[in-house]
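#dry-run=false #mode=assembly
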Amino acid sequence: MSPRTITFTKGHGTGNDFIIVPDELGTNDLSSTDVQKICDRHFGVGADGVLRVVKTAAAGIDAPQTTWFMDYRNSDGSIAEMCGNGLRVFVHYLYKTGRVSENINLIATRGGTKKVTKLSDGNYRIDMGKPQISIQPLEVSVSGRKYLATSVHIPNPHAVAFVEDLNEIGDLAISPVANPENVFPEGANFEFIRKIGTNHISMRVFERGSGETLSCGTGVCAAAVVARLNENQSGDTTWRVDVRGGTLSVEQDADGEVALIGPAALVADGEFYFEN
Amino acid sequence: MSPRTITFTKGHGTGNDFIIVPDELGTNDLSSTDVQKICDRHFGVGADGVLRVVKTAAAGIDAPQTTWFMDYRNSDGSIAEMCGNGLRVFVHYLYKTGRVSENINLIATRGGTKKVTKLSDGNYRIDMGKPQISIQPLEVSVSGRKYLATSVHIPNPHAVAFVEDLNEIGDLAISPVANPENVFPEGANFEFIRKIGTNHISMRVFERGSGETLSCGTGVCAAAVVARLNENQSGDTTWRVDVRGGTLSVEQDADGEVALIGPAALVADGEFYFEN
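#status=ok
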């Protein structure tokens, strides 16, 4: 038997990077160990996660309006519902490889069917749904400092706090702590934001299970939602959010519906060898 | 003009990972920016460095006994003289791609011509030359603790200290400090070692310019040299050194000549796109 290999493409969305594995017929499912191996940054290729590209029908997913299912896995092999940066990269890959050609595509994810629009400037816009904002008082502790914060579910949990300076929160080597803790029974992602100008913030993010990352799609949305709320804005708004890995935009309409807009890039194609 | 791409292979030696770029005729030199792009772990493929594979004659290197020159670059694009883990991966690549077939090969590096032997168990043995050990008293400070240390040049500078527990030195987020500082006018690599058993140590390493790494070939040699000296051994000795990324062996003969023995692996082949 010849050594087991898989064909892959590596891509990223504002520095959140993925190994894309084409598997149209769903015949090449990846074990948790497979995902860990290929995502290992020293012993494998290295990435934050894997995006397996499967036809919805072949994956056995009930999402009749869709042709493609994004099977997203975290680098530790665990299954995740959705990933805003990953979905842009996924759809960019579909275009680049000729698998889709329309400007609007519905994509099946474990977090439901998502609408992705290719914009004329090459960016992608993802309809993220409506966030749930809690009015319960919340405090976040980090690096010996305490901040008032707002909890947002979109749908995963975020605690968003304004800071004076993005450096004052230290190196984010360990997770910030939310008080009261029972607001987030399954943990949370933490966003620290600073106002830069009109409808413009910069942010750093601590992702549950990953530590500080260059970018987090849902975290960017949560941050913009809190910034908008903080200024009592209503109607259609657009916020620019600078993250360590680049820049994204967040649109929100009068009903509160959120869309994330940002770039995607493919950087390499290759073949990975499981036994080496 | 079509987008610029390069063909690469990714490999590692005990977790020290490299992008290998074949360029036999020396017509595809890489700029510092090129190396940074491909080595970036989020926006590129990701690696500790690049190994460009060039014929010695084409590279204009004066090393008449050699056919191949290892052009090694650090991930920041800077030029480096030698890399013990990189050289094993380099020679493994030459075998796997049919560029060499003999068991012993002389390879040109910026640190001189190196003899590499392929062993029957698949490991590679590199003759590293004679270390220079200083008898000057030296102290290393790390995480609020101080240790007596020994300075070894092989030929790059190392400070090696015994510790009781490899965890007591903290997370090695910032460089340890040597006292007196003038022992290392150009900085040093720091090895912290613990005796495990007969001729067997484990170690952690802080590499100048890189921080803590999974493995460092010359650091492993320096550590074994100090461990051997500490036991007043002479004649032919073999030490086993466990690093975070795996296990290596260090042989030393009666004359003090050091050889590093360890594995090498190739994990992926691919094509990298500079513009994306």
